[in-house]
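Deliverable D4.2, example record:
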Amino acid sequence: MHILITGAAGMIGRKLTERLVRDGALNGQPIDRLTLLDVSTPSRPAGFKGRADCAAVDISDPAAARTAVADTPEVIFHLAAVVSGEAELDYEKGFRVNFQGSYALLEAVRATGGYRPRFIFASSLAVFGAPFPPAIPDDFCTTPLTSYGTQKAMIELLLADYSRRGFLEGVGLRLPNIVVRPGGPNKAASGFFSSIIREPLNGQEAVLPVDESVLSWHASPRSAAGFFVHAAGVDRQALGPRVNLTMPGVCCTVAEEIAALRRIAGDKVASRIRREPDPLIVRMVAGWPKRLDPARALALGFRVEASFDEIVRVHIDDELGGKIPS
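Output generated by the structure prediction step:
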């Protein structure tokens, strides 16, 4: 099986690649080729015995998109994106990558003719906009309140139509906030959800830009990789015409996040969080969905952690060698 991953150098891309290499197969078929693309060249996955093509590519270039699918990979994981905060501050860049890049890849598949891959798209809860019901089902109207959410929602519509027309088999995954992200801070408006756990565990101060009462929806990077692997094999008939799905998550407040950190790592670690409101982030977060109803995804077999404590422990196991720093 030949698998293409765009955005392969990013956190989810790396976790997904590691999972695929470890499993060695997808949907019961051995993986013998990986094509890994990003704006910077992804690393060749350690331990992979098959062919691995790793390249720096601007996926918004239609010629590059055509080249990416020229060898007709059976499964495409489209993760490449400009994150929420950056898409809000730089509209042209966000539109070019998040919309035009995704559209170029969809069109490249359609233009190949007779080729119908499973196409799995990394969407976002940002496609939803306030006012919200108490729990948001995945058929709630998509009225995003950010440019990032708008760009994702437009591709969701195209993904559904391209699937209906038989150009591909699309599955759109509306991801929760993925925490705890390894590495350093990025330009995602939601990045603080990871920072307030990651940095204190690394002995560093973290800035909390919103009130502790902010409620949000979370899953670990390990679960995110699992979402994509599971989506590659989800039954097409069971999925039906509504191909975009809200992924399950752990719903909790920032205060509950911090309490989980304190339970696991102690007061000294939790005290490294500094409160410093950021008006832009406060405004963006106010328009994000809080509590969701992922009933369809759960019925289709998608799974996530049971608590935020478990999410913190996944980070400690996967990124800190299982050891809780003092």
